[in-house]
Amino acid sequence: NAGVTQTPKFQVLKTGQSMTLQCAQDMNHEYMSWYRQDPGMGLRLIHYSVGAGITDQGEVPNGYNVSRSTTEDFPLRLLSAAPSQTSVYFCASSRSDSFYEQYFGPGTRLTVT
Amino acid sequence: GDSVTQMEGPVTLSEEAFLTINCTYTATGYPSLFWYVQYPGEGLQLLLKATKADDKGSNKGFEATYRKETTSFHLEKGSVQVSDSAVYFCALSGTGNQFYFGTGTSLTVIP
């Protein structure tokens, strides 16, 4: 099992550019989520999904889109990058019957200039 | 709304010292409480959990007790090792399918 994989590991964008952060899991987990980690602020939930075809907003969804067409994949799209989106992004997955035991990917460090 | 407050870091301890990292929470209803650990360059891993009042979670020598009367879930370890150096996050899951994390406490253990 690869667990939760994220690509890329590092990315630099210019303001206004768009990109997609990829997340995949091979554990057949129903629940997937995206967080951003900023200094002094811990992790904040961006979007989450309880299954294929179902997504919902978390605490800080503005500027991000998600879709969940398969159980395995949960990409995060930045529509028009802004410097405020400079952060480390983590994807996580878990089973719906124990969704608190989240498995995290290694993270993507994004810098927007 | 739901939230978690944990003690500011960084914390530096000598090997074999006693560790306490304080965590308090605000939540409606009856949340479940967790401690996650993040080793350098890695994602978070679940360390321990407690799903109801008075439950004690434990793992790898770490313990935390869910205290409803003081809305606390403090992390303790009797004798820390260099390998325990990491960032520790307190978290809760309350209403809905959402997690709330604290800001993290960085621990460095020196030999």
Low-pLDDT runs of 5+ residues of chain B are none
Number of helices of chain B: 0
Straight-line N-to-C gap of chain A:
36 Å
- The percentage helix of chain A is under 10%
Helical fraction of chain B equals under 10%
What proportion of the residues of chain A form beta strands (DSSP E)? over 45%
Using only CA atoms, what is the Rg of chain B? 13 Å
Largest β sheet strand count, sense and barrel closure of chain A: 7 strands, mixed
Shape of chain B: globular
Major sheet details of chain B: 6 strands, mixed
C-alpha-based Rg of chain A, rounded: 13 Å
- Give the end-to-end Cα distance of chain B, rounded to a whole number of Å: 41 Å
* Fraction in beta strands of chain B: over 45%
Number of separate helices of chain A = 0
Point out poorly predicted stretches of chain A: none
Structure class of chain B = mainly beta
Helix and strand element order of chain B: EEEEEEEEEEEE
- Average of per-residue pLDDT values of chain B: 92
The helix-strand sequence of chain A is EEEEEEEEEEE
Textual characterization of the structure:
The complex is a heterodimer of chains A (113) and B (111). Chain A has 113 residues and is an all-beta fold. Chain A contains no helices and eleven strands. In chain A, strands 2, 4, 5, 6, 9, 10 and 11 form a seven-stranded mixed β-sheet that branches. A four-stranded antiparallel β-sheet of chain A has the order 1-3-8-7, with no helix packed on it. Chain A is globular and about 40 Å long. Chain A starts with a strand and ends with a strand. The mean pLDDT of chain A is 93. Chain B contains no helices and twelve strands. In chain B, a hairpin with a 5-residue loop joins strand 5 and strand 6. In chain B, strands 2, 5, 6, 10, 11 and 12 form a six-stranded mixed β-sheet that branches. In chain B, strands 3-9-8-7 form a four-stranded antiparallel β-sheet, with no helix packed on it. A two-stranded antiparallel ribbon of chain B has the order 1-4. By secondary structure, chain B is mainly beta. The termini of chain B are far apart. Classes of the chains: A mainly beta (113), B mainly beta (111). At the A-B interface, strand 4 and strand 5 of A face strand 6 and strand 11 of B.
